[in-house]
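Input record (Table S2, row 331):
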Amino acid sequence: MRERRLILITGKKGNALKAVVTGGAGFIGSHLVDALVARGDDVTVIDNLSTGDLRNIMRHLDSGAARFVRKDLLGEGWQDVVRDADRVYHLAADPDVRASAGNPATVYDQNVTATVRVLEAMREAGCSEIVFTSTSTVYGEAEVIPTPEEYPGMQPISIYGATKLACEAMISGYAHTYGWRSWVFRFANIIGERSNHGVIWDFVHKLGSNPHELEILGDGRQQKSYCSVLACVDAVLYAVSRTNEPFSCFNIGTEDWIDVTSIASIVTAEMGLRNVSFRYTGGDRGWVGDVPRMLLSVEKLKSLGWRPALNSEASVREAVRALLRDTGRIP
Ligand code: NAD
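Output record (nicotinamide-adenine-dinucleotide complex):
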């Protein structure tokens, strides 16, 4: 690895935008790295590989298009990388909404403390652009659906959602205080190739162990918006290139939703399984902190000219196929 890093450092391009991607070996981060490399940016990934996987970005490391720094944002030794950056894409976080109820202080550290450490590293380094991946869960159980960015009564109902809202506030404070540009993106459920958590991942793995019965958390009627990871990354870069404010905030999602039982039916059909019995754990939500109905307004993004390419159902079907390929269940 040492030898590879030396080669990669000398391989930097002259006029390319220097981007740091925290969490760049993870699911969404690695797709962002793909897109940044494709447009010629000079990319450095910082990741502790807690949930990320180096294989997601290996071809960029091998080609010299990106370099990798294995560090934990809560530790030391990564801040120098930021010194060299034009922009930080900060994706590293603990993204597990369900598990966040079990370890709130740890989630706070992983999400809020890590974000403040990134902001401090940027301030000391003189780096003044940050892109941040937030979430629909900052709205809590919104009474306005589709929920716009200006929704007034933000009241997260999960620890995860609360930590992300706290991060947004800190980013706004830093950006306005120090004259930066910042972009916050509130994602619906993002799905697709390399996914490592979430309902589709859960169903595929459960059915891999027991193809006769599928446990579904809640009553299966939870309705949410699901967006392909490729569309998500496309929307992020689209909005960043067209806005220039100290603090810009955009929802990213599809314009419709799909319920959990329909997702279960798509997964079983795509896996070629018949006569699977669905066993519901009951209740209107899957876990403490689950928001049963989530649909984000994407009018603000659309006003810039962006459109989601697929609806929720098509995104789910595509993601199931990608996950089955990822896990070797179909070629
Ligand atoms: P992921 O777990 O695949 O990615 C997170 C990455 O961050 C991993 O590679 C992990 O190893 C790394 N990481 C975590 N803590 C770290 C630390 N302390 N130091 C260094 N690296 C660390 O998850 P993802 O789904 O790709 O999520 C990416 C971002 O998008 C997260 O901020 C998440 O909250 C946000 N988000 C995701 C979704 C979704 O549906 N997947 C929805 C809303 C928001």
